[in-house]
Amino acid sequence: MLRFKRKLWQVKKNNMKSKGLGDTVEKITTATGIKKVVETVSKATGKDCGCGKRKDALNRIFPYKTN
């Protein structure tokens, strides 16, 4: 549990404003450790996970309103 709280603190510390749903999904997967697992598997298999493309697509399709 402490590890999760530490990761969540790191995400909050960066506190980058999310442009859309893709940024939010990335923050959640980073905080829960899913992103690290995916990167490890991606590196082992030599295949790109497509996370960046997926994030950009979600940001375009579901942008957050800016004032």
Shape field: flat
Helix content: over 70%
Mean pLDDT: 86
- The computed structural class is mainly alpha
Q: How many angstroms separate the termini? A: 36 Å
Report the order of strands and helices: HHHH
Count of runs of 4 or more consecutive helical residues: 4
Q: Strand percentage, roughly?
A: under 5%
Number of E-state strands = 0
Give start-end ranges of low-pLDDT stretches: none
Instruction: Output the radius of gyration.
Output: 13 Å
- Characterize the largest beta sheet: strand count, sense, and whether it forms a barrel: none
Please give a structural write-up.
- The chain is mainly α.
- It has one domain.
- It is built from four helices and no strands.
- α1 packs antiparallel against α2 and α2 crosses α4.
- It is flat, with a radius of gyration of 13 Å.
- The mean pLDDT is about 85.
Topology:
Layout: H1 2-14, H2 21-32, H3 34-45, H4 51-61
Helix pairs in contact: 1-2, 2-4
Summarize the structure.
The protein is mainly α and 67 residues long. The protein is built from four helices and no strands. The protein has one domain.
